[in-house]
Amino acid sequence: MTEPRLRPDQSAWLLVCTILSLAPHAGHLPLSLIGACSLLLGWRGLLAHQGRPLPHRFLLLALAASLVALVAVEFQRLFGKEPGIALLAGLLSIKLLETRDIRDARTVILLSFFMQMGLFLYQQNMGVAALALAGSVATVAALLSLEGRADTPRARTLAAARLVLQGLPLMAVLFILFPRIQGPLWGLPADAYTHRTGLSDSMAPGDVARVSESGAIAFRARFEGDPPPPAERYWRGPVLSDFDGRTWRQGRRSVAEAPAYRSQGPAYTYTLTLEPHNQRWLLALDFPATAPGLRYSSDFQLLAQAPVHARQRLDLVSHPGTPVGLDEREAVLSQALELPSGSNPRTRALGARLRAEARANSDIPALAIAHFRASGLAYTLDPLPFGRDDVDSFLFDTRQGFCEHFAAAFVVTLRAAGVPARVVTGYQGGEINAVDGSFVVRQSDAHAWAEVWLAGKGWQRIDPTAASAPRRIDGGLAGALPDMNRLPLLVRNDLPWLRTLRDNLEAIDNRWNQWVLGYNPARQQALLSALGLAQADWTTLIALMAAAGTLVAGLLAAWALRQRSPADAIDRDWARFCQRLAAIGLPRETWEGPLDYAGRIGHQRPDLGSTVVAIATDYAALRYGMASTDPLARRRLHQSIKNFRPR
Amino acid sequence: MGLPALRATLHRWLFRVSGPEPAPIQLGQRRIFVLPTRFGLALALTLLVMLLASINYTLSLGFALTFLIGSVAWISIHHAFRNVVGLSITPGKAEAVFCGNPARFGVVLSNPALRPRQGLLLAPSTSTARLLPNIKPFDIAACGSTVQDIHLPTRHRGWLPLPRLTLETRHPLGLIRAWSLFQPDVRCLVYPAPEADGPPLPVGRDTDSGLGGRGRGQDDFAGLRHHQPADSPRHVAWKAVARGGPWRTKEFDGAGTRDVHLDWNRMPTGMGIEARLARLTRWVMEADRAGIDFGLSLPGADIPPGRGNAHRNACLTHLALFGLRDD
Questions:
Q1: Does the beta-carbon distance from A560 to B57 stay under 8 Å?
Q2: B210 with B183, same domain?
Q3: Are residues B80 and B185 in the same domain?
Q4: Residue closest to A428 by CA, chosen among A380, A389, A375, A475
Q5: Gap from A163 CA to chain B (nearest CA, Å)
Q6: Which DSSP category does A258 fall into?
Q7: Is B225 on the interface with A (CB under 8 A)?
Q8: Is pLDDT at A110 greater than 80 in this prediction?
Q9: Has residue B2 been placed in a domain?
């Protein structure tokens, strides 16, 4: 049996559904593919509009082959997330060109679901959610059009929206109660997590500056009590000790279940919500106390058990006054003194001079800072290009640099002077969102500072950037840089309205992240214990879900079986009519039929007479006459009784 | 128990249909069955894949989308169910047909509810019948009713009962098929197919043989016979009726009027039963068309001559049911 051809309205809905699922991908698909897909979809739209036949199968095969070739050229491969989604997008567009009957149309609809899932791999913000909701309505409308008669787009959209609305409560129940399992279940393609900005585990000149150009949020924190003062807001990231003359890398270290220090001094308690950065390190204020499920490296970094691919919430306590590294291992200290031979000779000479000037090792850092301050180093996001030896160029020639240049120059100087030192990267600063009180740290707060080891004191934090641009520490990047225009728009503080708008949007976004996107096994447990189900394992969850599903199904069945006959509806309307008359002191006597009643009221209240008689006549005709099957007459009666308001 | 018998038992138990039911048939909730269509299963598979992807990539919105589409599909079960439940079915008329022509049964479906019913299909329950191209989906307005014709091929003369019917819907999304089985108590009489070609109507040959019926006329009173609706009122034995007796028609002899008696026994020997019935059927139709009075003699039945639609139909009925149990 051949299925009937698609009607024009069915084709149109299918096209809408496909476009809604494809269009959001324009942000990351290559331009050539966007062009190809638009052409194919436009062609399909034109054919549908003119009612012309679809292209021949051979032409479509050729198109599909050339599309695969295009993807292969653009991505240099066919497997993986990005080429996979590109292929799916292209093939969906071609499939639409050979969609002749209802079965093809249904295939297109199923494919468009996968397209929407693909979008979530890239982003899951509220805009995308709204778009997906619109896509779902369009899909339901397309399914409705495949099944029913042609209808106006407006009526179809309304019908589809009503169905989706009816589905929402059950969806919420499933979303909350479905047992959450922390993925992944199987190996992911190598490029599954890309497009994430942030620090890396090495630092070359210009790296931190590049990260700073993004206004994206790195993490949020919510402090119990006051947040630390700006000078204490150092969020520790990768610690870099291995220097090859240009690039800094992580040094020798070990990882343990517990920190190598004993926490002491005042504490900050906070909840950190970390945006995924695909790295193992976490960002904590110095120095986090022991917490379950976390790892501690010997260079005082806080690590996760696995790379952070999803937004993660951590409850942390930090004690900034904790002394660390008092008995540091010799191997670590010797690496913290290594300098590649022959590099940066002028800085080495400076180090040697400082060492000669100093009476004790502990004086050297202060001398170096004093020297930095005296050399008039300028803090800029966009330094002049350096010569062969970066640190020498920065300290003695260009004298312009960003925090990583300051930190690197300082560490090299101290190492040359014989003081163990290393670079620490992370974030410095952050600000309070005035709307929801959360503490927001952005990529533009990325920072690099130095750590110096002094006998008897252990590792000490020294921020050489502060020597040149103290406002960087107190006022963030925007406070330190003279030129606003190079900053990400959202970090600039010369536009107060923009700041308010941003705060509001980000507060909503935070809620969204916390409760929708960050709804993970831990969140689920927390929510359920707040509801009084402290020890809910997955069997409990499934039982709950089944109970909720049954409840919903029961309600739906009751609704489905509720029989309302037209006579009931008419009587309800009539009862309302009688109530309204009774309210003005004209109740119906029990023996009075509708026409007698109306006649009496016509005598008592001539002003109401004609209306009352008309309604009573209609009622009698509908209730006792043959007209009861006429829905139009019923609606007319309903309307006239609804509008009947006697005084 | 053989397989067909087992199947029949299973059907009876599962679908609660055991035979023709008296009208009106109400489709209550226990008579409605709901299962996913093939597309529904495909969607379920798709949703499963989406769910696994959501778990694997920790896509919260993936969960949300999967659950939303799943919930809408779940809701559509109830819409499909609601679309069929509460309908009431009454059989309409089924006009007798000649074997070989399709029999047409009218089935009246009425919707007592305030909501319209959409996308319904009505067809005999046999699996092939539902795919016939002339089965078109239909709607029933709120508080409305519709008459749907069921066309069935006829292969044998006799009574053709309306087989079990399936009323189904895939409304609203095509994911779920809700259906109900019922068998309205109505049957259609199938006359034997008239012989295509053969000897002409044996008019006038009777008088020679003397074996045929009496010639009918208006002249001399010849006796009384059972009244038939087509008889002229002038010939009704009114006196007998006035006394409270049965209706009788006075018969008169009249030579020279054309009439014919169709007799089973005067067919050529060696002719089969069905062939004889086919020839008699053709003769009945020809005599009726020519306006000739005709009688019919069959083994076990003797219909006195007469004319008119009722007389013709009575003869055809006898021919249709000849040798069959009249049930």
A1: no
A2: no
A3: yes
A4: A475
A5: 6
A6: S
A7: no
A8: yes
A9: no
Clarify whether A403 is annotated catalytic. Answer: yes
Mean pLDDT of A318-332: 86
The average pLDDT across A9-15 equals 91
pLDDT value at A137 more than 90: yes
Residue A520 has pLDDT above 80, yes or no: no
Confidence of residue A483 (pLDDT cuts 50, 70, 90): low
Domain that holds residue B271: 205-320
- Nearest by CB: A171 against B56, B67, B173: B67
Q: Is the pLDDT of residue B10 over 90?
A: no
Q: Which of A195, A191, A183, A187 is nearest to A79 (CA)?
A: A191
- B92 within some domain: yes
Are B72 and A164 an interchain contact pair (Cβ–Cβ within 8 Å)?
yes
Do B181 and B219 fall within a single domain?
no
Average the pLDDT over A579-593 and give the result. Answer: 85
Residues B212 and B182 in one domain: no
B114/A564 Cβ within 8 A: yes
Query: How much helix, strand and coil, in percent to the nearest 5, is found in chain A?
Result: 55, 15, 35
Position B167 scores a pLDDT of 92
What is the structure's pLDDT at B133? 61
The angle formed by the CA atoms of residues B280, B281 and B285, to the nearest 5 degrees, is 115
When pLDDT is cut at 50, 70 and 90, the band that residue B174 belongs to is very high
CA distance A82 to chain B (A): 14
Q: Is B139 in CB contact (< 8 Å) with chain A?
A: yes
For chain A, give every domain's residue range. Answer: 8-177, 202-497, 521-561, 566-642
Q: Is A447 among the catalytic positions? A: yes
B70 vs A contacts (CB less than 8 Å): 171, 174
Which of the residues B143, B146, B170 would you substitute to probe the A interface, choosing the one with the greatest number of A C-beta atoms within 10 Å?
Answer: B143
Clarify whether residues B267 and B165 are in a common domain. no
Query: Both B18 and B134 in a single domain?
Result: yes
- pLDDT score at B206: 46
| Secondary structure letter of residue A516 according to DSSP | I
What's the CA gap between A108 and A116, in Å, rounded?
12
Most trustworthy range by pLDDT among A444-453, B29-38, B64-73: B64-73
Residues of A in Cβ contact (< 8 Å) with B46:
110, 113-114
pTM (predicted TM-score): 0.68
A208 in Cβ contact with A448 (< 8 Å) = yes
Q: How far apart are CA B253 and CA A578, in angstroms?
A: 76
DSSP 3-state of B160: strand
B/e letters for B296-327, b = 16+ CB within 10 Å, e = fewer, are bbbeeeebbbbbeeebbbbbbebbbbbeeeee
- Contact call for A164 and B42, based on CB within 8 A: no
Judge if B114 and B243 occupy the same domain.
no
Residues above pLDDT 70, as percent of chain A = 90
* B contact residues 102-131, partner A, Cβ 8 Å cutoff: 112-114, 118-119, 131
Query: Do B166 and B51 fall within a single domain?
Result: yes
Nearest to A113 among B46, B142, B171 (CB): B46
CB-based contact B82 A560, cutoff 8 Å: yes
Say which of A9, A286, A389, A463 is annotated catalytic.
A463
